[in-house]
């Protein structure tokens, strides 16, 4: 509760801003709940990793981003896609493996992309997105743009060697990449305490001369503020930045995870005391920024967006059978002088 | 007792070099560790140090001499108390020590005639084209330089590609022309820089990633396959990965099991990758330029032993060769020999020897392994009714297996004998010279296989 009170005191967040965060986080929460339902109904198959509990991380950081910035993340990616403005219908239809999905049903929950929104996946291999995000920053810098790249990964990925290979090059070449460690405390079933001896992940960047900090990932305003600091650092050409965002996932690692590695009480306590959506709601109400009725209207709007996406995802046809053989190779470029 | 100073082997594949400069003269006293000469290999100019103490009695090979074989006496050193007359008793360069080149069959010297003649007959170039003599190494460099001039988005990264001028000198001169922004030395971090380059390709650039050898690319293979090859499909065609991974592949000479593997079959099994494995300098150039322009990830497998080989390269502005088009390097009627890359050395030597025995072999260089030009192979097998494949990779789950299966399916009724394959042996590469020779395929094995399928 301490966090919530502290956040409530912050005077600089406008009503519009707070309402937007509330709305964006709620969209992710309700979308994920619906995805969980559809999974239970057998409409979504394979692996499905829900983002419930971690909403403040992407919503706060997207608030610090600007047009042209790029992002890449792991397989727990639905929240990132919604937060960067991808269409919930296209995301949900990809979850159901339909033609209307972002990858026309060929990617699934873990593999979705949007060139338009500069969302580069959705990567199914733990930590592989970290060098990729670093490469996106390399491209930004190479082209002389002042855009930055967000490379999101979890506390589990943070123990992979390629993360440190990426840190080394990002620091060496001053690349504008923000390494966002979403520390939700469990790498599948292995807690942070059981997987590393080091007390914090962001401090590992010190060895490479990379600036960083820890931030409360259950507080969207705190995340946004930290994100702004990181973005300013990168845009100023000062090289990479590491943000360790302390967060928590309420659901299992994936839909098939019974989550026996932690107690029900632990999850319940987090939900009751630290929930990011309840936090911002309290802030809106106690600060008299919004009435219960206004918030109910937002809830209704979100519910209808999510229901529409679920409807679309069930009605969209399965991809046509020739889709099996398309998109393996990009169109050939003309080979002018070849005979 | 005089001591002969011999031409040193300064790299695993060096057979000969240029005695660029003598740093000492006759009569000079040298101590162990003193630089006595500068020797130019195909990769670099190296300082050559004295091992023993003594006085330089006689210089046997003048500076500036090219093509000095490894182990040739280049000078005679006198030990304490000896005078110059002792040096005269030393053997002359004509009585050179036998050059030991275990991994390879005897090869023509670097400046010799191209290994297969009459490129003008090839379908890649119009009649009347003029040619220049170039090594595979130079052709690869020219291909990169031309493509980097053509597009600002093309850049080269890898270990030692910039300031060192390339571990195998492929990128020589590129740093000077294009600067450190576009020719980038990486830390030794294959997994990391392969992933970084994939990200840069997603971000709109056209990276060329040099692996010092493809043996080291196993550290990066997740990024190559899971990130580069599959993203176009997984994104429903939205986002491709225009990138070239290139470097030497396969056995060099005497570098042991961890540095001597041919990865052709590994990469060629992956949908989403294109795989190129050129033999000649002209193909290396034309195919690398196509690879850099290709909107897909391309695995470009070079061969260290071929780097120094000279071929005719067409003098055509912007010379490219399309993928999936095999080259009939030699026409024949009795048997089809299918190979690519270094395997072509054995295939062509075998074809020469077979001709003398009255067996006419058609030799096909596949050039690209994904896509494969099945049509050319099948048409040839339908004509000759027999086929031998030649590759350096391991025999199990090999390209040869795939070719044999395809030929069986597509031309079963035309076959007069089973398809035989000459491959590397099913063992990790041994270090010992005699064992290494056994582990690789040879011209003799190709000849034997052809005689078996032609029943001669």
UniProtKB/TrEMBL annotation, chain A:
UniProt cross-references to Pfam families, sorted A to Z: E1_dh (PF00676)
Cofactor: thiamine diphosphate
Gene Ontology terms for molecular function: pyruvate dehydrogenase (acetyl-transferring) activity
SUPFAM superfamilies the record matches: Thiamin diphosphate-binding fold (THDP-binding)
A biological-process GO annotation: pyruvate decarboxylation to acetyl-CoA
Assigned keywords, A-Z: Oxidoreductase, Pyruvate, Thiamine pyrophosphate
Top EC category: oxidoreductase
Dehydrogenase E1 component domain location: 24-320
EC id: 1.2.4.1
Recorded catalytic activity of this chain's protein: N(6)-[(R)-lipoyl]-L-lysyl-[protein] + pyruvate + H(+) = N(6)-[(R)-S(8)-acetyldihydrolipoyl]-L-lysyl-[protein] + CO2
PANTHER family found in the cross-reference section: PYRUVATE DEHYDROGENASE E1 COMPONENT SUBUNIT ALPHA, PYRUVATE DEHYDROGENASE E1 COMPONENT, ALPHA SUBUNIT BACTERIAL AND ORGANELLAR
Subunit structure: Heterodimer of an alpha and a beta chain.
Function, in words: The pyruvate dehydrogenase complex catalyzes the overall conversion of pyruvate to acetyl-CoA and CO(2). It contains multiple copies of three enzymatic components: pyruvate dehydrogenase (E1), dihydrolipoamide acetyltransferase (E2) and lipoamide dehydrogenase (E3).
Record protein name field: Pyruvate dehydrogenase E1 component subunit alpha
Organism this protein belongs to: Pontivivens marinum
Chain's gene name: pdhA
UniProtKB/TrEMBL annotation, chain B:
UniProt feature, compositional bias: Low complexity: 86-120
Cofactor annotation: (R)-lipoate; thiamine diphosphate
Transmembrane segments: none
CDD domains: lipoyl_domain, TPP_PYR_E1-PDHc-beta_like
GO MF annotations, alphabetized: pyruvate dehydrogenase (acetyl-transferring) activity
Ranges where the Lipoyl-binding domain occurs: 2-78
Protein name (database record): Pyruvate dehydrogenase E1 component subunit beta
């Amino acid at each position: 509760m301490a966090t919530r009170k502290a956040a409530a005191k912050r005077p600089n967040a406008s009503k519009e801003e707070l309402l937007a965060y509330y709305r964006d986080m709620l969209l992710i929460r309700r979308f994920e709940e619906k995805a969980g339902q559809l999974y239970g109904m057998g409409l979504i198959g394979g692996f499905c990793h829900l983002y419930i509990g971690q909403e403040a991380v992407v919503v706060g950081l997207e608030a610090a981003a600007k047009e042209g910035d790029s992002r890449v993340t792991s397989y727990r990616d639905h929240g990132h896609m919604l937060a960067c403005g991808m269409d919930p219908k296209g995301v949900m239809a990809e979850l159901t493996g339909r033609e209307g999905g972002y990858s026309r049903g060929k990617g699934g929950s873990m593999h979705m992309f949007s060139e338009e929104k500069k969302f580069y996946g959705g990567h199914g291999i733990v930590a592989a997105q970290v060098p990729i995000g670093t490469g996106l920053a390399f491209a930004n810098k190479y082209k002389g743009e002042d855009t930055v790249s967000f490379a999101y990964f979890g506390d589990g990925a943070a123990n992979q060697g390629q993360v440190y290979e990426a840190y080394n090059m990002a620091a060496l070449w001053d690349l504008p990449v923000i390494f966002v460690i979403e520390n939700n405390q469990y790498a599948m079933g292995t807690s942070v305490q059981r997987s590393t001896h080091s007390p914090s992940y962001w401090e590992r960047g010190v060895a490479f001369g990379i600036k960083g900090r820890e931030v409360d990932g259950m507080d969207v305003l705190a995340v946004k503020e930290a994100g702004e600091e990181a973005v300013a650092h990168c845009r100023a050409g000062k090289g990479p930045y590491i943000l360790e965002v302390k967060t928590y996932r309420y659901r299992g690692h994936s839909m098939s995870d019974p989550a026996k590695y932690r107690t029900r009480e632990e999850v319940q306590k987090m939900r009751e005391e630290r929930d990011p959506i309840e936090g911002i709601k309290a802030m809106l109400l106690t600060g008299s920024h919004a009435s219960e009725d206004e918030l109910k209207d937002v809830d209704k709007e979100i519910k209808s967006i999510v229901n529409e996406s679920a409807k679309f995802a069930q009605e969209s046809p399965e991809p046509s059978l020739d889709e099996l053989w398309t998109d393996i190779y990009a169109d050939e470029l003309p080979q002018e002088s070849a005979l | 007792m005089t001591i002969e100073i011999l031409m040193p082997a300064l790299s695993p594949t060096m057979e000969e070099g240029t005695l660029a400069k003598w740093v000492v003269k006759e009569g000079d006293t040298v101590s162990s560790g003193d630089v006595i000469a500068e020797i130019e290999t195909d990769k670099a100019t190296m300082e050559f140090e004295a091992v023993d103490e003594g006085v330089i009695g006689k210089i046997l090979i003048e500076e500036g001499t090219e093509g000095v074989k490894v182990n040739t006496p280049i000078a005679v050193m006198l030990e304490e108390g000896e005078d110059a007359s002792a040096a005269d008793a030393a053997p002359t360069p004509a009585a050179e020590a036998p050059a030991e080149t275990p991994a390879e069959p005897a090869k023509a010297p670097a400046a010799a005639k191209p290994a297969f003649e009459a490129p003008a007959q090839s379908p890649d170039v119009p009649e009347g084209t003029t040619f220049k003599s170039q090594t595979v190494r130079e052709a690869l460099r020219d291909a990169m330089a031309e493509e980097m001039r053509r597009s600002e988005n093309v850049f080269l990264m890898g270990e030692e590609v910039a300031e060192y001028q390339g571990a195998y000198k492929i990128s020589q001169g590129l740093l000077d022309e294009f600067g450190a922004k576009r020719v980038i030395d990486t830390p030794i971090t294959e997994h990391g820089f392969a992933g970084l380059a994939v990200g840069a390709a997603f971000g709109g650039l056209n990276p060329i990633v040099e692996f010092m050898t493809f043996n080291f690319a196993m550290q990066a293979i997740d990024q190559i396959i899971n990130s580069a090859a599959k993203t176009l499909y997984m994104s429903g065609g939205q986002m491709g990965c225009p990138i070239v991974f290139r470097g030497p592949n396969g056995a060099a000479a005497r570098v042991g099991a961890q540095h001597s593997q041919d990865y052709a079959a590994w990469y060629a099994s992956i949908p989403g990758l294109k795989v190129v494995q050129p033999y000649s300098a002209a193909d290396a150039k034309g195919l690398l330029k196509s690879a850099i322009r290709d909107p897909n990830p391309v695995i470009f497998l070079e061969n260290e032993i071929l780097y120094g080989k000279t071929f005719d390269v067409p003098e055509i502005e912007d010379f490219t060769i399309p993928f999936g088009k095999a080259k009939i390097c030699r026409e024949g009627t009795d048997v089809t020999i299918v190979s690519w890359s270094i395997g072509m050395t054995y295939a062509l030597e075998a074809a020469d020897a077979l001709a003398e025995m009255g067996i006419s072999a058609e030799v096909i260089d596949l050039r690209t392994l994904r896509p494969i030009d099945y049509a050319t192979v099948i048409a040839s097998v339908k004509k000759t009714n027999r086929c031998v494949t030649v590759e350096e990779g391991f025999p199990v789950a090999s390209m040869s297996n795939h070719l044999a299966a395809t030929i069986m399916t597509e031309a079963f009724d035309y076959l007069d004998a089973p398809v035989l394959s000459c491959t590397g042996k099913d063992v990790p590469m041994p270090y010992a010279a005699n064992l290494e020779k056994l582990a690789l395929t040879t011209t003799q094995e190709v000849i034997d296989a052809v005689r078996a399928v032609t029943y001669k």
